[in-house]
Amino acid sequence: MQWFLSVYSLTFGVGLVPGGRLGDAHGRRGLFLLGLGLFLAGSTLSVTAPVIGWAIAGRVVQGFGAGLISAQVLGIIQDLFIGRARVAALSAYSIAASASAIVGPLVAGGVLSVASEGVAWRAVLTVSMPFVAATGVLAALFVPRFKPVGRRAGLDALGIALTACVVLLATVPVVSRLPRPASAAVIVAVAVLVAVTFLWERRLGRRGGTPLFAPVLVRSGGFVSGNVVALLWFGAAGAQGSVITVFLLQGYRMPGLAVAALMIPGSLARILGSGLSGRMHDLFAAWALPGALAIEAVAAAVLVPVVGSPPAAWVLAVLVGVQLVMGFGSGVFEPLIRARTLSFVPPSDYGLGASFLQLTQRLAATFCIALVTGIAFAHGVDAVGPATLRGAVAVTAGLLLVALAESVRAALAERRLEKCRDVVRLGV
């Protein structure tokens, strides 16, 4: 189950960087359509899988295709909008994602409620396939052609492969319980691969190539800080959503449709927050991000002593309330963190910068979902205990607190920079 949940995010991240780099160099429409084709092929493989291994393989293909798609979407937004208009476009993007978070679970819950146990999961995976095909037709008609800015950059295939291996190896001990010698060997292998990746990237840059970790992005403090905050937030959000959903299904034995309905208020609050994110930015500037994170961190802390309690109406009421607060906070946060982080990216690297931002988010989701579900279900999916569940949710609250601390540091640094600029203007 952990591999089935995590491997999609893993290969999503692996597909992002080549997708962004190739989109910058060769145009976005072709890559968008290729990603849709791969997603459809992966869906078909999972739906028809005779054993779980083939179903996971289908998720691998699905994730890679989704990474190619997502890189082009954010690249197109970067190409067409700047400044306040970009925040509005990213808000619309978040609203669309929030709407899908309502429709998707409702449809999946309905399928789970009416289909027999043996075919229900296959039917859920089938639902998206006609929409993927329809999106391909719309993309061919409406996605604009793109003229590359600057020189065409090469594809750092070795850097991508090394990074994928590092992430995969780092995830294995979290998903699979290994003996201590095997875990130690994995840690050593990860350290060696990280060192090899660093040396390769430095050598490629010195030889005039275009490293996966582009120097112009790696050396940007604002871009790196934004990625750190996004990494922590996305990992916490993805892990918390996964563990609560599976707990309600397995621990409370709630029907899938009921679980989906329970999540609707949070998704609606996220839509509201996304719609107001631009106004929050206008009112609070750099402090809008820490404010949104503070709201989420407090709500996550409130959730810790509540989860794991015996089934009761008040538990579900608190859960809905927390989902409302966190949904609004994430709706405000997500467009702003994307707009702020991508503001440090030059036009020639729009696709790469957007892909890198999503890569950190997806890799965080891969690791955190595997880690937190491993904590929550340490004694098996059918033996979820209050202590392990609370420990899992506490980890997500801790991640949000660290993200809040970094966002406050960045806001203070931005404020100091603005004061310096004001002094320079007055001096001039």
From TrEMBL:
Keywords: Membrane, Transmembrane, Transmembrane helix. The chain crosses the membrane at residues 31-57, 63-81, 93-115, 121-143, 155-176, 182-200, 212-234, 254-272, 284-306, 312-333, 363-381, 393-412. GO terms for molecular function: transmembrane transporter activity. Residues 1-409 form the Major facilitator superfamily (MFS) profile domain. The keyword Transmembrane helix applies. GO terms for cellular component: plasma membrane. This is MFS transporter.
